[in-house]
Amino acid sequence: MVLSKSSRKKVFKKKSVVCRPSNRKKACKKLIIVRKKIVLVRSPRPQINVSVPQGIQGPTGPQGIQGPIGPGALLKWYDFIEVPDPMIPGGTAITTFPLSSPPTSFGPEVPIAELFITLDNIDSDDRAELKVTIVWNFGVTTTVPSPEISVLSQQMQFSIWRDAALTGTRLCSVVDHGNITQISETAPVGTPIIQTLTTSFTCTDIGITGTPHKYFLTGAAGPANGFFVSAGDDGGGPAPITTFDNPNVTEVHFSGMVIDRNS
Q1: Paired strand residues for 158
Q2: Rounded mean pLDDT of the chain?
Q3: CB 29 within 8 A of CB 19
Q4: Distance of CA 206 to CAs 65, 124, 127, 244, Å?
Q5: Residue 191 or residue 23, greater confidence
Q6: pLDDT at 24 over 60
Q7: pLDDT in tens, 61-90
């Protein structure tokens, strides 16, 4: 091991020699013997950082089977329903709603295809979170020859009920609306003008007692208004629409989960 100057430490120890009586006639001299002691201090080992290039990431392995929910998990129960299954756009109507009368109010509420989900394992301090996505359509059928301008709107109300549709406990309601502005150049009389919309909403149910509970969906057609403007009116102005088509629902995704109280 080679030591640098900075790594050497010198320690000096002095020792005195006293003259004895037999040597009195002689001049006594104090001899100082200096002993040198060298202490070796080991220098810290230097750290060597080696940087190597990272290799190409390999393919993702297959996902394992989900394990059981542990005792500390918040999710306690889950259920859902999907119609049609799978949800494909452009399907047939699963529920059709009567038009309101008069047209400025909401019509009768109708259960949506008698669909429901069931939630269980609910304690009084738990909460149930409900999520809904509904795809619905509205429109009108042309009554005069083209060319024609059609302007119309439609409101819809959707609700979630606990335990029974219409006679149970209403948890929440939402109102949505759609608008159509269309210019028809070659459409003959009797051509349908249709708009498709998606309504999504979330609702939370708390203070629930007893299990299990069923949750249902209902809908109601709201106010509808609009007018036609035809090139054959000779400046007669817009004509009010009085023959709206019945709104309908074609797709539903309804899910619910029971969430444990926050720890």
Answers
A1: 174, 219
A2: 80
A3: yes
A4: 32, 8, 5, 39
A5: 191
A6: no
A7: 776 665 555 555 589 999 999 999 888 887
pLDDT value of position 68: 54
| AA identity, residue 1 | M
Q: Which two tokens stand for residue 132?
A: 């809904």
Q: Distance between CA 55 and CA 20 in Å, rounded? A: 83
What is the rounded CA–CA span in Å between residue 122 and residue 212?
Answer: 7
What would the DSSP string read from start to end of 196-229? Answer: EEEEEEEEEEES--SS-EEEEEEEEEEEEEEEEE
Cα separations (Å) of 6 from 10, 35, 43?
A: 11, 21, 10
**CB 153 within 8 Å of CB 180:** yes
Q: Report residue 127 as tokens.
A: 């909460």
Strand partners, 179: 153
The tally of CA atoms less than 13 A away on the side-chain side of residue 55 is: 3
157 pairs with which residues across the strands?
A: 175, 220
77, β-bridge pairs: 258
- The continuous run of DSSP H or E covering 135 comes out as strand 127-141
Q: Which residues have a Cβ under 8 Å from the Cβ of 151 and sit 6 or more positions away? A: 180, 181, 226, 227, 229, 238
Strands 31-40 and 248-259: unpaired
- One-letter identity of residue 84: P
Q: How many CB atoms lie within 10 A of CB 159?
A: 21
CA 55 to chain centre: 34
- pTM comes to 0.69
Tokens 């309504």, residue?
199
User: Residue 186 has what DSSP assignment?
Assistant: S
- Residue-wise pLDDT for 31-51, tens only, equals 444 455 555 556 566 666 656
